[in-house]
Every structure is written in C-alpha cells, then in structure tokens.
Amino acid sequence: MKKVLFAASVYSHFASFHKPFMKMFQQKGYEVHAVGSNSRNRKDELLDIGVICHDVDFDRMPFSKKNMRAVKKLNELFSHHYFNLIHVHTPTAAFLTRYAASKHNQGKILYTAHGFHFFNGASRKNWLLFYPAEKLAKRWTDGLLVMNEEDISLGKRLGFKENHNMFHVHGVGVNLKEFHDKQGELIDIKNELGLISENVIISCIAELSPRKNQLFLLKNWNTIVDQCPNAHLLIIGYGDDMEKIKAFIEENWIMNVHLLGYRKDIPSIITASDIVTLVSKHEGLPRCLMEAMAAAKPIITTNVRGSRDLVDNGNCGLVVDLGDNEGLIQSFVRLIEDKQLRINFGRLGHQRIQDYSLGNVLNEMEEIYSRYV
Questions:
Q1: Could you tell me the CA-to-CA distances from 213 to 47, 113, 118, 236, 239 in Å, in that order?
Q2: Tens digit of pLDDT for each residue in 266-298?
Q3: Class of domain 176-356
Q4: What is the CA radius of gyration of the chain?
Q5: Burial code of 305-322, b = ≥16 C-beta within 10 A, e = fewer?
Q6: Which CATH number does the domain 3-173+357-372 belong to among 3.40.50.2000, 3.40.640.10, 3.30.450.20, 3.90.640.10?
Q7: Count of CB atoms within 10 A of residue 159's CB?
Q8: Structure confidence at residue 73 (pLDDT)
C-alpha cells in the first residue's frame, strides 16, 4: 500500500488544519502516517480518522538534546517504512524530518512554510539561525508551499522557482459552511457572559504568546472603553502568556475583558462577534481572520505579512502599524460606533475570502500533490 507521512512539531497542528488533506489521501487508498508530539492532547482526533501516529518529541530550539533523540526516532521510522510522499510543517520538525528522510531514500518531500521565521523586521538571531537552515534544507526539498507575498520573495531568495518547485496556496482553507448566520448562538454567548444586546463584542482568537501580542491591545483597551463603554473584548486561546495576561488585566483594572481560554465553538463565537481582531507581530496566513471573513465580520489587524495579504485596509477591515497606539484606538472607536461600516466591511470580506475556501484549497493541494506522486 502507498504511504504518505505528515510531520510537524505537535499533533494539534494537524488536528487544527490538516485533517481534510489526510482524508483526501485516505480516499485515494493511501495509508496516512503522522509524526509529532502530543503536548496538547489532540492525538486522538487523528487516531479517530485512521491516521497512524508515531510520537516524536521535537524541541523548538534546534540544537537541543531532545532533537537529537528526535532524529534517532525518525531514522528508526524511515528504516521500517517507505513513504511515497512526505509533507512537513513547522520549522524544526520540518528541518529534522527532511534531514533524516534524505538519508533513507524516501519519496518526494514537500514543505509548507506557514510563515518563515526570518522575515522583514525579524531579529538578527532569527536570520542567522533559520535562514541558513532553510538554505541547507533546500537540497532535501522537492517542493515548497508558501501562503503570502513576502514568503514568495523569501522562497525565491532561497533558490526556489515559482510554479516550478514553489507554489502559492490560499492557506489551509476555511470551511465556509460553518459560518452561516447563527442568531440563536449569538444570544447564547451574550447570555453566557451576562451581556446585553446593545453590547459590541470584539473577539481576539490566538495563542496567548508574545508573538500574538495581546498586550498591545490590552494596554489601549481602557482608553477604547472610556469612549465606547458598550464594547467587550473576548480573548480566546491558551498559551505561555496566560498568567502574564491575567496579571496585567488585574493590576491595571482593565475593564470589559473576558478570558475564555480554549474553546471548541469558535465558529459560533465568531458569528456572535461584531468585530474580530488580531494584533500579531508576525503571521503566515492567519486562520482566524479567514474565518472572520467567512462569517462576514469586519477586522482590525496589524500591518504584518499574512494579515495584510487578507485584509485590504479600508475595504474589509482596518490595518494598523505595530506600536501605533493612537491608530489602534481610533480604528476600534470608528468601527464600534459605526454599525453600517461594520456591515459593509463584513460583506466585502466575505466576497474576498471565496478563493480561500476549503474546497478551493483542496483542489490546489490535489493538483500540487499529483505532481509528486
């Protein structure tokens, strides 16, 4: 039986983004395998759809002893299995898997860059560490998939050629059917939080981490609420910055903020929202903004790659430069106070997101995969 392998640092990456593509291979008769760490307990979601999982504990820091053990496990895996195609994700897991596979005469290898760690504005450390690593790994990479304009330029700099061994895809796709109007669920979320119909809900859905930059919004939130007391901010997600964010909210008496943690009802929350925001320091192509556009919600986001690829400033949302506190405040006040503008932005965003539908991306990926298997 033909086999395909997906590799990433954690199984939750596949559970969140790649199950449709795994199912596509299964429907074509492939045996689908995955390697990753079970740090967020979503391995069962892969096992439930018949994916064969091989636990490999990667470390984000490339030179850790944990990654030496990871290479040993990968060597064992490749000694016992031949994969017709290997599709790798996340920088460290992608590098180590490509390296190990190259020593064992495996099939073709594809790498999806969900946002290179070296980019315009990245630290010198990131450029010194990740750019040479990707330059080296090019020799083990048959095809590169990128999701935004800046990464196309970086891929060319690495030596890939567009539409030859580098392909621009519309992210991981968004299921438009999940975001039909759900007025009943809108009432439920407001009831859950003790809000009234006049409240304006702003949702920020992201891992709680320095990269996602929630503190940029929180530092300005009280000023926004002073001008728009009916605004309520929902912070959805988990991560290493959870306690730091909780402490900041408490110590600074930040008003009208609700920390919801991990939620499985994201489509319902987005549908219940009036505005969706993401204030990251850098992105690849953020899924939460695609989902907001699928639900016809206006967006406020930062002027970083990926986010600006999706959001046309003044068209389907507002784009703010990193660190522009006044611009951030003005953008929120403008949208909170102008319901018709929110409706107009949402309608235009919904039109714009059609190319990013899951069905369209599945077709794109099927065409790319067919080049290699």
A1: 34, 21, 18, 13, 12
A2: 999 999 999 999 999 999 999 999 999 999 999
A3: alpha beta
A4: 21
A5: bbbbbbbeeeebbbbbeb
A6: 3.40.50.2000
A7: 14
A8: 97
